Amino acid sequence: MVTENFPNLGKEKGIQVQKAQRAPSKKNPNRPTPRHIGIKLPKIKDKERILKSARDKQQVTYKGNPIRLSADLSTETLQARREWHEVIKVMKNKDPNPRLLYPARLSFKIEGQIKSFPDKKRLREYISTKPPLQEMLKGLL
């Protein structure tokens, strides 16, 4: 599908499909061919580029039939998730084992407890009581 509709994107070696799954039709589950195909890409940037190209082209086809692409996350959610990337990058070099929970919550383990933060303001308030975290994230918050 990528090479058929987006020849420039298809030539790049960085785009890889991590998982593809067919979902049966909700109206008629006995229909022989599923209607929806969910594709998980390993990088958010790849998904953004494909969706941007699809919006520019306005009609995407698969084997000659028009299809509709939709993102599983809104642009606001993608932006919120993107804001956590620098914090996660710094924390991965250290020990807290950070994770980005759905839709855009930062979670990490500290002192044997798992802490979760919906935004940077709450994280900033929390790290003000934890000097090692303050030192680690200095300049990011």
Task: Write a short abstract of this structure.
The chain is of the alpha+beta class. The protein is built from seven helices and seven strands, in the order ααββαββααβββαα. The chain has helices at residues 2-5, 7-10, 44-57, 75-83, 85-93, 120-127, 131-136, and strands spanning 19-23, 36-40, 60-62, 65-67, 99-101, 105-110, 113-117.
Question: What features would you describe in this structure?
Answer:
A hairpin with a 3-residue loop joins strand 5 and strand 6 (105-110). This protein has seven helices and seven strands, in the order ααββαββααβββαα. The protein is elongated. A three-stranded antiparallel beta sheet has the order 5-6-7, covered by helices on one side. It has a two-stranded antiparallel sheet with strand order 1-2. The chain has two domains: 2-71, L1 transposable element, RRM domain (Alpha-Beta Plaits), CATH 3.30.70; 76-136, Rec A Protein, domain 2, CATH 3.30.250. By secondary structure, the chain is α+β, with helices and mostly antiparallel strands. Helix content is 38%, strand content 21%.
